[in-house]
């Protein structure tokens, strides 16, 4: 089940200038609630990794069965959301990488949060802004979930926060960027995971039901990317 189904509510935006830790989620002791659906969820069998793949070739796995919209308790349990959260990211545009423990015992670790704000900054505009903690929950949940199936890769952050000027320049250059993009308010990121195709990654992000998901398919060895945001729930292909 997604974050909302577990009763985990994201905190208000944490200012990047803040030096005090704040909780990333509420109701940490809440019990999972039954999903509201007319059709009972079927047992999740996300790990449809080819049984013939040997341990030596796991590093080149490129296909996984997309997860269902609602995970069952066998796939995501309450303990998953209570364990410490370490987010590993790389930023190709600036050749930066980091592996940060940013949440533990129900609280955000402020120094790590500040560094994540910096890593998700507008590289072109050279400006940093607060990043919605709810977005970090989605990024961490995505990375931690696929790690259960042997895909332990950092999240590539292709775009995080953008200034309005940077967003306008992208539009003028023909890059798909909404006029009122949530990147401008630190509520969106364009991401990619090595060895995981865009369709599977997007299906997983969508299943968290935390905001919008854009599928951007591209030819080439790196494939496409996924836009994830904390706005209204919606899906599109670009």
Automatic annotation (TrEMBL):
**Superkingdom of the organism of origin:** Bacteria
Q: Does the keyword Protease apply?
A: yes
Q: Which cofactor does it need?
A: Zn(2+)
Keyword list (alphabetical) reads: Cell wall biogenesis/degradation, Hydrolase, Metal-binding, Metalloprotease, Protease, Signal, Zinc
What SUPFAM superfamilies does its record include? Hedgehog/DD-peptidase (SSF55166)
According to its UniProt record, in which pathway does this protein act? Cell wall biogenesis; cell wall polysaccharide biosynthesis
Name the residue ranges with Low complexity bias.
Answer: 26-37
Chain positions covered by the region annotation Disordered: 26-51
- One Pfam match, given by its short name, reads Peptidase_M15_2
Q: Which residues form the signal peptide?
A: 1-21
Q: Which family is annotated? A: Belongs to the peptidase M15 family.
Q: What is the protein's name according to its record?
A: Murein endopeptidase K
What taxonomic lineage is listed for the species of origin? Bacteria, Pseudomonadati, Pseudomonadota, Betaproteobacteria, Burkholderiales
